[in-house]
Amino acid sequence: MNKLRFVLVGAGRAGMVHGQNLVHYIPEGDLKAVVDVDLKRAEETSASLGVKSFYSTLDEALEKEDCDAVCIASLTFTHREMIEKAAGAKKHIFCEKPLAQSLEEAEKIQEAVEKAGVKFQIGFMRRYDPGIRRAWEMVREGKIGDIVLIKSTGRGPGLPAPWIFDREKSGGMLAEVSSHDIDSVLWFVDKKPHHLHLEAKNFKGQEIREEFPDFYDHYVLTMSFVEGPLGMIDGGCPVGYAYDARIEILGTEGMIKVGETEARGPVLYTSDKKSWRDNQSSWRDRFREGYLEEMKSFIRSVLEDQNPSPSIIDGKRVVKVVELAHKSLGQQSPVLWEGEW
Amino acid sequence: MNKLRFVLVGAGRAGMVHGQNLVHYIPEGDLKAVVDVDLKRAEETSASLGVKSFYSTLDEALEKEDCDAVCIASLTFTHREMIEKAAGAKKHIFCEKPLAQSLEEAEKIQEAVEKAGVKFQIGFMRRYDPGIRRAWEMVREGKIGDIVLIKSTGRGPGLPAPWIFDREKSGGMLAEVSSHDIDSVLWFVDKKPHHLHLEAKNFKGQEIREEFPDFYDHYVLTMSFVEGPLGMIDGGCPVGYAYDARIEILGTEGMIKVGETEARGPVLYTSDKKSWRDNQSSWRDRFREGYLEEMKSFIRSVLEDQNPSPSIIDGKRVVKVVELAHKSLGQQSPVLWEGEW
Amino acid sequence: MNKLRFVLVGAGRAGMVHGQNLVHYIPEGDLKAVVDVDLKRAEETSASLGVKSFYSTLDEALEKEDCDAVCIASLTFTHREMIEKAAGAKKHIFCEKPLAQSLEEAEKIQEAVEKAGVKFQIGFMRRYDPGIRRAWEMVREGKIGDIVLIKSTGRGPGLPAPWIFDREKSGGMLAEVSSHDIDSVLWFVDKKPHHLHLEAKNFKGQEIREEFPDFYDHYVLTMSFVEGPLGMIDGGCPVGYAYDARIEILGTEGMIKVGETEARGPVLYTSDKKSWRDNQSSWRDRFREGYLEEMKSFIRSVLEDQNPSPSIIDGKRVVKVVELAHKSLGQQSPVLWEGEW
Amino acid sequence: MNKLRFVLVGAGRAGMVHGQNLVHYIPEGDLKAVVDVDLKRAEETSASLGVKSFYSTLDEALEKEDCDAVCIASLTFTHREMIEKAAGAKKHIFCEKPLAQSLEEAEKIQEAVEKAGVKFQIGFMRRYDPGIRRAWEMVREGKIGDIVLIKSTGRGPGLPAPWIFDREKSGGMLAEVSSHDIDSVLWFVDKKPHHLHLEAKNFKGQEIREEFPDFYDHYVLTMSFVEGPLGMIDGGCPVGYAYDARIEILGTEGMIKVGETEARGPVLYTSDKKSWRDNQSSWRDRFREGYLEEMKSFIRSVLEDQNPSPSIIDGKRVVKVVELAHKSLGQQSPVLWEGEW
Lengths: 341, 341, 341, 341
Prior knowledge:
The structure is a homotetramer. The first copy, chain A, is an alpha/beta fold. Helix content of chain A is 39%, strand content 25%. The mean pLDDT of chain A is 97. The A-B interface holds A 146, 148-149, 151, 155, 197, 199, 201, 203-204, 218-220, 222, 224, 229-230, 232, 234, 236, 239-242, 244, 250, 252-255, 257, 261, 332-334 and B 146, 148-149, 151, 155, 197, 199, 201, 203-204, 218-220, 222, 224, 229-230, 232, 234, 236, 239-242, 244, 250, 252-255, 257, 261, 332-334.
């Protein structure tokens, strides 16, 4: 097996990123078919990618295509069904974040994957961003001593699709916008949270609240780890000005910042005595290398029979943080992390 | 009256900054005497500044010196006594932050000042930092719409003097290290907080807790404003790597960052393929211009009979935030701001 | 023809970059064989790339392999021979910079390519760097008016291989280190130089001068364009601290800077109150995307029967600048550009 | 003598900077009178500074005022006359750059000052800029080994006053705009130049050439030092976008950059996904601290009977570089530095 043959489920934005990488930048990936509930979109996407087959259901694709793996980039609330089908067919699975919209669903997913014994990787691509990975290594090398405080800021320029507003389907804005931030904090700290507390407000989505009264668009999540550091995550959208992803880690012996609001590129100096540059405009550009390398790593893991990383456990922990955070928001006070790490 | 004649109370670090500015950089200031409970320190300081007189009590200085104003940079828990004496002698007052160690003391101070009818300015010098002031103006000009989230980070390289560890005397680490951050958040938002919540931990000062069991050295303060934004302050010391003061203001139409961890100056590129620069090493360097301009402004206010700013009310609000935050820390849940703004 | 089948000539550093891109990142490229005069190196390189065939001569490879194109990354003084063979066999050609060690050779190369009617692209990958390309577009869009001055700095961390020291073989240090800078200046200005002047000194290579008396390691090239701007190029190696490539374009209405000495990545703040970051350490990292995209573009040009760019003319102009610059260095005064643009 | 009593000659832009510093920021300076050929301007300036006396000639001021020193900020071609008068009256002299419009004048000035035995400082304030001074110290400490190449860029946002266009009066644009850059290069290298070469063009001042045919507005000056580094200065105005002053020093062991086009201050991120900041807009802001500290240093030198620095020799060397550079421009080839260092 020299190439890994994929079916891609979900022809939305994240699906397109994975599809383009598999077709144009990863020789060892072989995209056989595109699945989308919207058959027309599946067809157009497969055409634009130069892929022959397209389907409206994963069942059909699994029946008709010889494939080794499924890349799941469909709506969050369909993840469980897609993963159960893929696992049932003994296909290896790459799944976009968040793993699920609730901890209960995440548990079911874990069961299905473990029972099938297939390989599974969750799409926390920031772990494959060279800068964030280097920061993580520096922490591991002891460059800043023990972590005292870790802050992650994650903001998107636009609003996500309307189905996201329904917390039952998406896990809510925290899950949609900040799953990567939560994973980063947990990955860097690598300890069990003691308690956490979410403050959230709705600044721009007044009309959204008419249908979804618990909708919020900006928030601050505070975490305290067992015998460990404090954590702060702030997130929100739409912020317009950038796709803004930054992490700051304060340790007993130093500090690390990684991530910049500005994109690399020219700086223009104009006659009004100002200088301007482009900001990071999209997660697609900002994490282009992360998306490419996470998929290459997943393929390598399967081809060489290694354990992919990040794992389903990593995916589940983030879902649990989101669920506890929403509980804290409801009761307007911190909540304890109960159960194991 | 062409020059304002000062008595300086407190020959510590902040006192030295004001003393040097009055002597070496502010022609319209005239420093007549230095007061310190440690008479030897008062003598040495006055000698180093080229000032003729020194005393161990403010009473004595007020009796013997012709002066117009008192600059108070003594220990926090002495502020009330010093201010009452100065006000009693009808001297104008410039007072270092924090105003007092408790809200009760702050109220008494306000009474004394108002009764005497003297001018009073609290030393929130960041309002005179050109960058922070420009950011504040940009917010007022509507450059970023309405504030959605404001974050202020304040960290000091070393530990403060041991008397600070006693919350009864100093108001605690939050008051000592983050009074400027709290003032900045309140100044930018200019609305009444709805509730606030302090998370704090002790990472480096284990032995300090033996004497002061409630001691903490790093913390995160979350604030929510009435019909307004969220606020986050994180602070701590000793962090070693810098005097680090940064503010970030997210609005409905844009974002502003102000303050940098690095100092201006040369960047050195070395053969190990690294580049390094000096960080901001001290509040004295970072806010050199702020300290100078706040004092020039105070002098101008007195000489031209204007109201100095920031006012005693600004000082009192910060004390109230500190007191509520400590209450929240004790009960491990958010507390409401009660009473007027 | 879905994929372009390549023979790679030259298994050195640049050859490896192209080989890895063709094998690991460009699905539409198909590397059939590696050629190197050192057969063992050819074998090792082909093995490490997972390529089946290797040869010690291009003749043999052309005879035995079905291929569409040749990627030439061999020593400069062999370019003419390799290009003539490839063109003779009607293969499309991608050739690394510099095109040749002398203008006379470059003319011969151009003849051979034009006679064969094959497609040819010279490896000025900076034109495919997103930042430099964006800067070039901004100039074309009129963002800074007319160019007044353009500066390009190019420095390498280490010394090139010893055969480079022989100007007869390599075109000299200016050709080796600054061909990209010269091309950038010509590409941005797009006008004929009026005269140019090279100042050069030898700071680190004293022992090299024993064998090559005209060796220099640092230099400044000044250019003046006909009814156009001034140009400055400074270059040199080994500088140790970075692979440093920066361009600055001053126009009548503004200024653009592009390229940074520092790499993107974490910033570490340490207890000595310093902050440090990694510099750009290698052209391979700095222009990773440029190398990838130039090759994808070349392949697309061939597959879609377009003219590749930059062209053989672009390659020849840079060789001419180098030759005139060396003449100017010899006579210690500026020399005129004679002949057409 | 506790304060140094000054007469200020020249109420233009540079004169105002010195006047304001002496009055508002330097307690040990005492400005007694303002002299300007335009008596009305002298009167307005003295009024705005709160200074009692004003005159249209230095003679009159010297006759009527008790003073210790003269600060000369009048037009370049008047420097010799003003310095001769001040020296004749045994007054210490602070003189703005450039020292003179020709080397011949500079020699006469030196004679007059040496004969009078008064203290003299030339206004190369960049030596008092904390960042540039720190860079110079780092070079002296051996942080980058021996200097290989030094580059200084100096550009002004607007055109200087029309009298500057007359090279006979001002020394020309190179003297006006780049005297500080030339001094910096000489100060860092501290060796005798071997030869130098000026390339200059006129991009914006077409109509100026009607009256002054040798007028140029942008230029590149290349220098080669005896057994030493290469130097490059580029300058010009009006560039609109900033007051831009940057130095880069490449050494055998590393590299230093100092000076930034952008001012410190807020960064604004806007909904078009751009970020902007203010550039350095004026030499007054950029070198505010340099202007203040050079004058404090001059006063200290006089009060404590030390030799002020930079000296008249430093001033003269810059005039010589300008004169040789113009010779090189005329003959379109490099010229040798003859005579001593």
